[in-house]
Amino acid sequence: MINNHPTADMLTEYSTGALSLAPVISITTHLQFCDRCRESVASLNALGGALLGECEAAPISQQLLADTLDRLDAEPANVFEVEEPEQPFLDPKLEDQLPAYLHKFVGRKPLHWQSLSSSVSVAPISVGESNYELALHRLNAGGRTPAHDHKGMELTVVLKGSFSDENGMYHEGDFLIRRPGDVHRPAATQNQACICLSVLEAPIKLTGLKSVLNPFMKFNPS
Amino acid sequence: MTPSKTVKGSMSDQNGPNWNDLLVRVGSHQDKAAFGALFSHFAPLLKGFLLKGGGLDPEHAEELVQETMIKVWRKAPTYAPAQAAASTWMYTIARNTRIDWLRKHSKRDQQTDELVAEELFDENETSSPFTALIQTRNAGHIKTHLRELPQEQLQVLTLMYFQGKSGQEVADELNIPLGTVKSRVRLALQKLKLKLSPNGEDSNVVFAQ
């Protein structure tokens, strides 16, 4: 049972195409787990379709259809059966723990896991996004992250395992929104490591530690 | 609810051709006549949609219309009429084409490499029969109530859907508070009887592109 979802506003901006790359990826990842939000998005898309259907038609050049058909003739048949691109850098052990949707992003370039503490590591995922940092976080079984607060928005999708913080317990598919000023101290459950996808908007700083030691938090768009 | 009636009335134009069926034919038979019929109907709508979005001159708009229709041809075999009406499916393709075009032509995100919007959104998901039923019902509600929306709600929806503007950008453009934009969207969705996941706790989440 998934208890934490993107807001209706976020889903709307997702459907209308207003969101940046990394937030889009985090929401599509949540949709891999959540039928309810997938239905919401389908409804919002249907509204887009209706607005398209009702919109004022603009006359098009007469030869546009002929041009388009010419271009289609130049296409090989069955182009839709494109081969899945290879994912040369996808670690097979990690592959099993991620929804298939994420493979193409995670497998594009080598992942560099950095230890943030004895129990937490992070690997940035490069998607050509300049406003947000997209990353995988791994919390070892029973591990705790240092308490930290957020200067910018952070979105987290639990991919595997579960973790908890002061506010509750989060399971696979849960979508968490941390706002600037939120302070929390997540901990993984005892028997299983937890892997999350995160989207980070701006640096976050540790509370009670020198910022130099702050693990997550170098904002490093990639 | 009378499902059979709703299906017919909502997913296709009662008096016109059935666009869903034509799209299926394009996918299953590479039927160029069916494609031509879809093109004649949707290309002018797509152009109107893109022009209304602003930022495009008519020539570029036609370029994007063509690109969208070529993708429609290529992707038609993956089209599932139970999941979405033809217009909805085309809307997502047009939206993705616009996103890619804007990213290619913006100063920011220059390093953006081969990722395209289609890969980010991943529309090709299967849905349950239950989802299909909900979609059919939604399409009926939208069709019935869209024309009844107050102008101010329609305006906000138009800016968001046609121009891809965020709530904040719409607020700036109309010179109204973000909360007003959000409540207009919410009222419109209520009027159209579209139920979104109830987690819609209001917040100042802003994700500008």
Write structural notes for this entry.
The complex is a heterodimer of chains A (222) and B (209). With 222 residues, chain A is α+β, with helices and mostly antiparallel strands. Chain A has a single domain (1-85, 92-222), classed as Jelly Rolls. Helix content of chain A is 28%, strand content 22%. Chain A contains 6 helices and 12 strands. In chain A, α1 crosses α3 (35-54). The longest helix of chain A is centred in the first third of the chain and has 20 residues, at 35-54. Residues 208-222 of chain A have low confidence and may be disordered. Chain B is mainly α and 209 residues long. Chain B has a domain at 3-125: RNA polymerase sigma factor, region 2, helix turn helix motif (Rna Polymerase Sigma Factor, Chain: A, Orthogonal Bundle). Chain B contains 10 helices and no strands. Chains A and B meet through α1, α2, α3, α4 and α6 of A and α3, α4, α5, α6 and α7 of B.
Based on the model shown, name its key terms.
heterodimer, A: 222 residues, Jelly Rolls, 3-stranded antiparallel beta sheet, 12 strands, globular, disordered C terminus, B: 209 residues, disordered N terminus
Number of strands of chain B: 0
Look up the CATH topology of the domain at 3-125 in chain B.
Answer: Rna Polymerase Sigma Factor, Chain: A
Number of domains of chain A: 1
CATH architecture of the domain at 3-125 in chain B: Orthogonal Bundle
